[in-house]
Each structure stands twice: as structure tokens, then as C-alpha cells.
Specification:
The chain is 41% helix and 15% strand. The chain is of the alpha/beta class and 299 residues long. Strands 1-2-3-4-5-6-7 form a seven-stranded mixed sheet. The chain is globular and about 55 Å long. 50% of the residues are buried. The mean pLDDT is 94.
Length: 299
């Protein structure tokens, strides 16, 4: 069974619609995907409907922005209940923070000689519920300022660059607790990739495990082979689930093709049981994995 537990669509900063992502997953030979758009469940219904039609299993999820010791840490939440009010409140604050910084980013870019308008970015965002820096990066690409998203972040949008503006994100441990309280299970995305590496040593991971963290995304393009080996050992010592994923964004992120890293079936089973346990323990209805429709028996 081929399982990819971290993919994005146009419901956040991917370039393919949720239904298109499902079709591409089937074409890539995947059996299970998790749709994990940023801070939102907006793509779940479309992906679920298509998954039932084409025979793919879909795990509803989201990738939530958090902070630990001043560094951004992304948390993959699997089977959370997005209507759980404390979780919904924090997600709204995160999305408002994304929206609120757009003007400041564009002003700073203009000061640096990059003329991008609010309208251009909003056209790029389309129907996605949240504005992300990748949307701005795509406008920079379209305008010819940079060759791709990677260059846009390296030159303009990452911390320390002219177009970077911080935003609200809750504490990582707080969000782990909220995900669990909503009936979901929390996994740290690409823990030793990007800026989160400096704050996620084994001691910090141990403390998050004590707060209810379910797992680590160990197999990821942002990790070197030595990173994956070390993270796998840490996960074993802490009793955490180990996942592997593509972090697919369509054309928005190169070298992250669907299925490039996979999660073992027994690890997915553990993750789903943890989420079910959290839901039972708090007397909440469990957000359901989307299963393919049964096929009629042949004669």
C-alpha cells in the first residue's frame, strides 16, 4: 500500500485543485493521501467526493503554523474536528495574520524596487481561504522578477529578506493540545528542514511528546539521509509514529512529486488509532477517513 500523508491543493498554496490532486495521486499509483492544506479544511469536501469516485482513500488533515522559541514549526493535524471552537478560533487568528501582513509585505517590496499590487496577489490566491507567501512568490515569477518560488523566497520573502513580515502563530505545544482535544492527532512536518531545526532537538521533541505529540514526519525532501536516520532513532526512543510524505504543491514546489516519500501502513494505523483514542477520550465524534465506495459484486 502506497501512502502519502502531506499534500497541498489550491485550497491553500498548491497549484492543483483538490479533485485534481486526487486524480494525480491515482495516476501516481497511490492508495492513500492526506490533504493537508494550510490552516484550513476548505478542500476536504471536494477531495473526498473525488476520492470516493476514483477509489482512493483520503485522510482529512491540515498543516498548521505554530511557533516554538521564536521559530516557525509546522504541525500536521490528522482527523481534527475543524468545528471544535477552540481550534477554529486559533485557525481564524492564523488566517487573519496571513491576511493582515499582505499590505506590509507589498510595501516593503515596493521600497526595494519590486512593484506588485494587492489585486495581483488576490487573483493568484483565488478561492483559497488564506493568503500565503507562495502566492506572492508566484506573482513575482509571473512578473519575471524571479525564476521560481525558491528564488522568490531566497531573495525576497524569507526571514531577513526585504519582503519578510512576521505574523501570528500559536505555541506548538498549545496547538498539539488543541488538535488532540478536537479528536485529531498531531505530527511535526519536516522537523529538521527550514528554520525549525534549531529549536527541535531531542529534548524539545521529548517535551512535545509529553504534551501529546503523536509523530514525526521523518522521510521528507528537506531532510538529508543522516537527518532521517537520526529522527527515526529519536522517534523510536520517544514512541512516536514515523511518517513519510511528498509535501506536494503541484508546480509550486519542484522535486516534491507525489509519492516521493511514503508512510508505512502500520504507522498510518497507529496514527488513526491515536486520533480515535483522542476522540473517544473527549467524547467527540471522530472525523472520518474517506473510503472508496464499495464496488458491485461481479456475476
Amino acid at each position: 500500500m502506497r501512502i502519502d500523508l502531506h499534500v497541498h491543493s489550491t485550497a491553500s498554496d498548491g497549484t492543483k485543485t483538490p479533485a485534481e490532486v486526487v486524480d494525480l495521486a491515482v495516476a501516481a499509483g497511490l492508495d492513500v493521501i492526506a490533504l493537508t492544506d494550510h490552516d484550513s479544511a476548505a478542500g476536504w469536501d471536494e477531495a473526498a467526493a473525488r476520492a470516493r469516485e476514483v477509489g482512493l482513500t483520503m485522510v482529512p488533515g491540515m498543516e498548521i503554523s505554530t511557533k516554538l522559541d521564536g521559530a516557525g514549526v509546522h504541525l500536521l493535524a490528522y482527523l481534527p474536528d475543524p468545528s471544535y471552537e477552540p481550534l477554529a478560533h486559533e485557525l481564524s487568528r492564523i488566517i487573519e495574520g496571513r491576511e493582515g501582513r499582505l499590505g506590509a509585505i507589498l510595501e516593503q517590496l515596493r521600497t526595494a524596487g519590486i512593484d506588485v499590487t494587492d489585486a495581483e496577489v488576490r487573483r493568484q490566491v483565488g478561492s483559497a481561504p488564506a493568503i500565503g507567501r507562495p502566492h506572492i512568490a508566484d506573482v513575482l515569477v509571473a512578473r519575471g522578477y524571479v525564476a521560481d518560488r525558491t528564488e522568490a523566497f531566497t531573495r525576497w520573502l524569507s526571514a531577513g529578506q526585504p519582503g519578510f513580515v512576521g505574523r501570528y502563530a500559536p505555541a506548538t505545544a498549545t496547538m498539539v493540545e488543541l488538535v488532540n482535544a478536537s479528536g485529531g492527532a498531531a505530527v511535526i512536518a519536516h522537523p529538521w528542514g527550514r528554520g525549525s531545526r534549531r529549536v527541535l532537538d531531542e529534548q524539545a521533541l521529548s517535551e512535545l511528546a509529553a504534551a501529546g505529540l503523536a509523530g514525526l514526519e521523518v522521510d521528507h525532501r528537506d531532510h538529508r539521509p543522516s537527518d532521517t536516520a537520526a529522527l527515526r532513532s529519536i522517534a523510536a526512543r520517544l514512541g512516536l509514529v514515523v511518517t513519510g510524505s511528498s509535501d506536494f504543491h503541484g508546480a509550486g514546489k519542484v522535486d516534491h512529486e507525489l509519492g516521493c516519500h511514503l508512510t508505512a501502513p502500520e504507522q498510518l494505523d497507529r496514527l488513526l488509532e491515536i486520533a480515535a483514542s483522542h476522540a473517544r477520550g473527549r467524547d467527540r465524534a471522530t472525523t472520518q477517513v474517506v473510503r472508496p465506495r464499495p464496488q458491485p459484486c461481479g456475476r
